[in-house]
Write a structure and sequence with these properties.
heterodimer; A: Rossmann fold; B: elongated
């Protein structure tokens, strides 16, 4: 059975959480891959974790996107391998050009750290297996640069192609859009549908004792897409 | 070989809301600077490059547009000055 890779950049800080959560809910063998490595070691799936890679210098994710390991991740994704980017991982994937758009400074200026409600937009997608369209998930966010932006043509294409997979409730809801993201976008898929980037943290919602389990289906779906029989 | 000092100015595109600029503007207004408006916050990045001018300019464009800025949300303006005596 393939193992799962969790990338580690200088400044990653959700890497251990991601490994713990993946091991716990999928039983997978999870191994770290250092940003300077150019080899994913035969992993079946790659998780790009949250944190502040390279201190968020220049732009969030900008320097990490240029690291050696990202060349390997890009090639892996082009072969159809599943890639899950969470928070800073989502920023890294957009900066690497593996997902369209960008994550800009939160509209409200504050670093937001709270639980939000997101709505699943698809029910036929491998990286959302086990979830239904319209299902609401309570997931933590913790970011300063989480406002998804793209030009109208890109946004329209994402919508038309069903690539907006997770959407915040509207900002009018107290648990809604926390950052001013265009069209309330919380997560999108790219590549051949095998690359998912999302701002909320499913790995922080993987144990009832720690406040919720709504992230579990996303982690399981990722592991299953990677060939791990969770 | 000629040496150049380059300055790269990075600004959020007009179409992208600049919350930092808006916050700075609000503070300036609170301080009584009523006529201040359209505050926008950007970045200035300096670097030196060596080579012939055409090659240096091409390299600078590549660096500025692919790494130093994100064209999805930012615009760049470039300055290139030859360093005397280099």
């Amino acid at each position: 059975m393939p193992h799962l890779a969790v990338l580690r950049f200088p400044g990653s800080n959700c890497d251990d959480d991601a490994r713990h959560a993946l091991e716990r809910v999928t039983g997978a063998d999870v191994r770290f891959v250092w940003h300077a490595d150019s080899d994913l070691g035969g992993a079946g799936g790659v998780l790009v974790p949250g944190g502040f890679s390279y201190g968020d210098y220049l732009r969030s994710g900008a320097l990490a996107a240029q690291s050696p390991v990202m060349h390997a991740v890009r090639a892996f994704a082009e072969r159809g391998g599943p890639v899950l980017g969470i928070c800073n991982g989502f920023q890294v994937l957009t900066e690497a050009g593996m997902l369209p758009g960008a994550l800009a400074r939160n509209e409200g200026l504050a670093f937001v750290c709270r639980t939000v409600t997101v709505e699943v937009q698809r029910d036929d997608h491998p990286l959302l297996a086990g979830l239904r369209r319209g299902q609401r998930l309570r997931l933590p966010v913790a970011h300063h640069d989480g406002r998804y932006v793209a030009d109208d043509a890109t946004l329209d294409a994402l919508e038309a192609e069903g690539r907006v997979v997770l959407r915040y409730l509207p900002a009018a809801d107290p648990d809604g859009n926390p950052n001013g993201a265009m069209r309330d976008i919380a997560g999108i898929v790219g590549g051949r549908g095998n690359v998912l980037g999302m701002m909320p943290h499913p790995e922080r919602a993987a144990e009832a004792l720690l406040g919720g389990e709504d992230g579990v289906p996303l982690l399981r779906a990722f592991a299953r897409a990677a060939g791990v029989s969770a | 070989m000629p040496e150049f000092r380059a300055v790269v100015h990075v600004m959020l595109r007009r179409s992208i809301l600049d919350p930092q600029g808006r916050a700075v503007e609000g503070t300036l207004h609170r301080l009584g600077h009523a006529g201040v408006g359209d505050v926008r916050v950007g970045k200035r990045i300096e670097l030196t490059l060596k080579g012939e001018r055409d090659a240096v300019l091409a390299q600078l464009r590549q660096v500025a547009e692919r790494v130093l800025s994100n064209p999805v949300m930012e615009d760049v303006e470039l300055e290139l000055h030859e360093i005397d005596g280099a």
